[in-house]
Design a protein that fits this description.
Order of helices and strands: HEEEEEHHH
Function: Removes the formyl group from the N-terminal Met of newly synthesized proteins. Requires at least a dipeptide for an efficient rate of reaction. N-terminal L-methionine is a prerequisite for activity but the enzyme has broad specificity at other positions.
Shape: globular
Binding site for Fe cation: 119, 162, 166
Strand content: 15-25%
Oligomer: single chain
Largest sheet: 5 strands, antiparallel
Radius of gyration: 17 Å
CATH topology: Peptide Deformylase
InterPro entries: Peptide_deformylase (IPR023635), Peptide_deformylase_sf (IPR036821)
GO molecular function: metal ion binding; peptide deformylase activity
CATH class: Alpha Beta
Distance between the termini: 22 Å
Strand order of the largest sheet: 1-2-3-4-5
Active site: 163
CATH superfamily: Peptide deformylase
Number of helices: 4
Length: 209
């Protein structure tokens, strides 16, 4: 059975650090609070965690693992992944993507602000106006270590840029005027408290590992 990882919330320091490359794809990885697992198992668990949270992408730092990896899914209905919550997300997946050690190249610098953007680490907050490049190219390793190249535009390009930002310690609210963050100050403060409480619990649990 796949494991569902807790998603780290706004205020957790792991979301602000720059993730390190995965130097050995055969070495086990340890998500804090869980036993060490293979990269493939961690990727599968991240995908299941993403589906459980009704998301379109999830970066490794969001589960407390500061490595350069993220997962994503293309859905049949693009940005409507949160609609119809009675329908399992997996039933609408066109393809799953596991992206290791990505290098992002912009291939169309025309800015797109049309989509509403949110983040699984900042639940309940959605904003329009996040400027993203229209099209990008990712060069990355797949789970076997082979180098792959994928090009994306519009919504999928936005997903790739959002998740790549996580690997750089950047959140989507950082790309908006500070006044936007200020309007969510109360909700964000609550997330920060929850993040600290989880880290305290995790510290107690980890001493027994």
């Amino acid at each position: 059975m796949p494991t569902i990882y807790p998603i780290r919330l706004y205020g957790d320091p792991v979301l602000r650090g720059k993730a390190r490359p995965v130097s050995n794809l055969d070495a086990p990885l340890r998500v804090p609070g869980f036993a060490a697992s293979s990269l493939r198992e961690v990727a599968r668990n991240m995908l299941e965690t993403m589906y459980e949270a009704r998301g379109v992408g999830l970066a490794a730092p969001q589960v407390g693992l500061p490595v350069r990896m993220f997962v994503a899914a293309e859905y049949a209905d693009d940005e409507d992944e949160n609609e119809g919550k009675e329908t399992p997300l997996r039933s609408r997946v066109l393809r799953e993507l596991v992206i290791v050690n990505p290098v992002l190249e912009v291939i169309n610098r025309r800015k797109d602000t049309d989509y509403q953007e949110g983040c699984l680490s900042i639940p309940g907050i959605y904003e329009e106006g996040v400027a993203r490049d229209r099209a990008v190219r990712l060069r990355y390793q797949d789970l076997s270590g082979a180098v792959q190249v994928i090009e994306a535009e519009d919504y999928l390009a936005r997903v790739f840029q959002h998740e790549f930002d996580h690997l750089e310690g950047r959140l989507f609210l950082d790309r908006l005027p500070p006044a936007v963050t200020e309007t969510h100050r109360k909700a964000l403060a609550g997330m920060q408290r929850d993040a600290k409480a989880y880290l305290r619990r995790l510290g107690v649990a980890d001493r027994g590992l």
